[in-house]
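Please predict the structure of the following assembly.
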Amino acid sequence: MNRTSSPTPPGLILLRGLAFLGLAAIIYRFWVGIGAVANLSDGYPWGLWVAIDILAGVALAAGGFVVAGLVYIFGGKQFAGLARPAVLTAFLGYLMFVLGLVVDMGRPWHMFYIFIGNHQSPLYEIGWCAFLYTLVLALELLPPVFERFSMDRAYKIWQRTSPWLVVALLSLFTWAMTFSLAWTLAVASILLGWELMMEIGVMGRKGQTPVLLIAAGVMLSFLHQSSLGSLYLMTPHTLNPLWHSPILPVLFLVSAIVAGIAMIILESLAVESILGHKTPLEPLFALAYKIPILLIVYAALKIGDILLRGQGGILLTPHVPAAMWWVEMSLGVFLPLALYVAPGLISKRAGLAVVSVLVVAGLVVNRVNVAIVGVEVQRWHTYYPSFFEIFITLGILSMGLLAYTWATSQLPIHDQE
Amino acid sequence: MKALLMDTTFCVACRGCQVACKQWNQLPAEQTVFFVGGGYQNPPHRSSETWNLITFNEVSRQDTLDWAFGRRQCNHCLEPACVSACPVAALTKSPEGPVCYDESRCIGCRYCQVVCPFNAPRFEWGKRDPEIRKCTLCVDRLALGQEPACSQSCSSNALIFGDRDELLEMARTRIAKRPDRYVSHIYGEHEVGGTCVLYLSKVPFEQMGFTTGLPNTPFSQEVHRAMAAIPFALSGTALALGALYWIINRRLESFKEDTEEQS
C-alpha cells in the first residue's frame, strides 16, 4: 500500500478528532464518576452505552463467526476472501465492546471477579463467553500476522496447538457454567472425538485453519449472542411486552446473524470505496441472498411470538413504543424484504448497500428499543442520553474505525484472492 | 426466616424509622424539600443515602381526603432477582432473611438495579469508587440477636419484626378480624415469589405507590430455564457442527484436493 505522500483525508481527521474527544471524555468520566457525565439514574441505570456499545456492538460483530463458519465448516469456498476482514471486524468490535463495558462499569477494577462469580447470571455467562471469544478471535487473526512477518515456525505451532487449546478452553468454560463434571466431560469428548477423527483420517481435514478454532467461535457466539437477550428475561416489570418475550434469546441470536452478514457486506463495499481495495462482488451477492431467508425466519418468530402471547393489540396503539416497533421492523425487515422482491435492484452495488444499511439500522433500533425506548419505570422521569454519553460512544466507534484502517494497512487482510 | 410486617394503618408518619436507619447505618443527612415527592414526604426519594422512606399518599376514602402512609425499602425477596442477576455473587440471600451485599466483589454493572421489581438497589452516582447501597435488614444487628433499627424505633407498633410465618399468620388474623380496616391483601406474601417485608393497608396498594401487577413467580424463573439450556446448547452445537462438517466435507472431495494443492 502506497498512500504515504497523499494528504490526510478529511474523514480521517474527523475520526481522529472524535476519538480524541471520546478519550478525553472517558478520562473525565473516571475522574468525576458516572453521575456527573451521564443522564443515568437509579430508575434508568442502563442507557446508551448498553444499547449501542454493548448490545448493538456485539450483534454487529456477529459477521466474524458467521463468515468463518460458512467458509471453514460449511465449505463456502466462495466466501474465503471475506473471512479475514470479518474476523478483524469482529475482533476490533469486541475490543470496542470491552472498552464500552469498562466505561459503563462503576468499578471495572473488580471485573475479574466475574470468572469466579455466580453461574446463575446471564451476565456471568456473557463475561466468560466474550472473554473466551475475543481470545478465539485473536487466535483466528494470527495467520495474517504470521504471513506479514514470515513466521513459518510459529504458524506451524499455531496450527498444531490451537485445537487442543480450544478443547481446554471450552471444557473450562463448560465447567464454569455448570460446575458439572459430566457436562464438562461430554463437551470435552465431543471436541476431542472430532479432532481425533480428523487426526486419524476418518474425517477429512481441509486447509490450514484448525476447524475446531472456528467451531469454538461459533459455539461461543451462539451462547453469548442469545444470553444478551436473556439479560432482559428478568425485566417483565419494566420492558414493554412488545419486546419482553421468553424467546428473546433466540430473537437476539437470529437478528445478530442477519445483521452480522449485512455488516460484512457493508464493510466490504465501504472498504472498496474509501480505502480503495478491490472487492469481488460475487461473494457479496451470494452472501446477500442468505439475508431474506433469515429475515423471514426472524419476522415469523417475532410476529408469531407477539400474537401467541396475545399482545398484538399493542401494535395498533398510538404510542411511542408501538411506533418504534414499526420503525424497527420496517427498517430492518419489511423494507429490505420488499427490496429483494423488486427485480434487479439487489444485483446492483447500490441496492446491496441500501439493503445492508437498512438491516444494520433495523438492528440498532431494535437494541435501542429493548434497552431504552421499551423500558418504562414506574414513578420515574424517562431517560435521554447526555452529550457526554454520545461523545464517549462516538469516540469508541471512531477508535475502532481508526484501528481497522491501521490494521488493514499493516496486515494482509484484503489482499487474498 | 425472619421478616418485617408493616401495618401501614398504624403508621403515624413520625419517620422515626428513617432516622433510626440513618443513625445505625451511619448514613449522612440529605437536603430536604417539601412538596416534591408526595407532599410532606421527605426526602422525596430513596437514594444511596436514604434506604428507607415513609411515603405520604393522599387518597380519597369514603368521600373525604385522607393520608395513607406507605414505606419503601429493600423487600428482601425469598428468591431475589438481584441475587440471580449479580454476575459476581456480590449479592447473596442469607438463610435468616436479609439480602446481603459485598462491595469487595461488586463491579458496578448495575444489573441488580435493572432487575429489581422494587427499585431497591441504589448506586453512588457521584463517586469515583461507587457502591450499591440498600437496606440490609440490619444484618449486623440480627447477628447480635437484636431486631432491625427501624422496627425497634417504631413507636406506634406499625413495624413488627419476627418470624415470617408467624407474621403472615398475624396479618391474616388482623384482616379477618377487621375486614373494614384492611384491604384483603398481604403485599409481599406472594409478590415475585414472596418477600421478607410484608405490608397491610387500608387502601389498595397501587394508591400507596407500591409496584403492582407483579407476577407471583420469581423473576429469576425464566432466566434459570435459559441458563439451564446452556450445556445442551453447547454440546448440541458442537455435535451439529461436527456432523455437518463431516457430511459437507465428504461431499466436497474436490475441495480437499484443491486446498491441499494450495498449501
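Chain A touches chain B through 79 residues (CB under 8 Å). The two ends of chain A are 16 Å apart (CA to CA).
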